[in-house]
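Subject: sequence -> structure tokens, single chain

Hey, anyone have a minute? Need the predicted structure for the following. Not urgent.
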Amino acid sequence: MNKKVCAFVFNHFTNDARVLRECSALVEAGYEVDLIALHNFEMKDLPKKEQRKEGFRVIRVNDRLPMILRWPFIIAEFVKNIFAINVITKILSLILVLICLISAPITTIITVILLMLFSHRIVKVASRRAYSILEMTFYGVRRNYDIYHANDLNTLPQAIVGAKLFRRKKLVYDSHEVQSSRSGYENPIFGKIEKFLIKFIDIMIHENDTRAKFTQDLYNIPYPEVIHNYPFVSHPEESHSVNLHKLVGISEDEPILLYQGGIQKGRGLEQIIQAAPKYKRGTVVFIGDGKIKPNLIKLVDELQLHDRVKFIDKVPVDELLNYTRNAYLGFQVLNNINFNHYSASSNKLFEYMMSGVPAIACSFPEIQKVVEEEKTGICVDSHNPDSIADGVNYLLDHPELRDEMSKNCLIAREKYNWNEEKKIFINIYRMLF
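Reply:
Had a minute. Here:
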């Protein structure tokens, strides 16, 4: 009988390439896989249950509270309205709160106390997250799986309950990030939680050796297994290319200086724009979306760089490389804002490689090792716009070297791809039994 795997991921599973690769590899190796993810009620076409063409099933749980549990927050809005200016609104709100106190006094009082101690948003988000975790846990224990696979810290408790609380099953902890030092996880409590929870796991996986060694030293645990975040091997030159020059309205002979991926803090995107006036030629093109995109657009306005910097919305992951191949070079200039960034071996670097696009890369250990060993780009000081500009201009001034690096990318992509890495991944699973 095939071994049954229950994998958890705390996102909507619409664009998670690593989880897709791992689930697909398990199916190819004969495992039966269920992936429990989050649903997004705003995405009307996103199914709650989905049988993927790769052979595994996706179960999406609610990412918001059901109506029966949302009413305390509706009450809270009316509580706030009691202090509003409009007299009629005050009266109606007060009547509703009194009715709630009579019909459900404990729930109403607890909700009001929480909202007094914390902000409305904090309580609402915490409640929603807790409900999603509980529903994930329910689906994880309702079926008798052989292996539980937690992708990142925010799904490890669910996996522990399924694997260890009611039964003795195997548990894989696949940490895609450095949980004790990453953006959004600055509170040291996350490191303490991870240190406690990893006592229950059977095997830990990290993305690269720098992160594995860091985690081993931090928690005094056996050296984690390493699965690199390499993409599927692909040959975009054999498929239809999107005319990116035409799309952004520039001439065909204008070099495209590309950044693709999340528009988030700590990725050196401000420095790319600040360096733009110093690029001898070329137009910077950003493909992607994220929280700081409005800030970048404002920066372009302030520097009056509308003719040098263009923005394109996020494109489907399976079409991205048809855009990438238009670029003269690609940026991977993370900033050292935490150890998670410093230790990254970003998938973006290998996406450029798949398309034969040399990289302007940060001088961090995992990224620099690949770029310099394979001669696929130039490493710069990612915090310094002048250094970034120097790297860009060097490739602009030496097109023959750029073409040589492009050829090196096409050679290296046969090494840095998921076809090779998945063999290691499946062997890790075979170690469980």
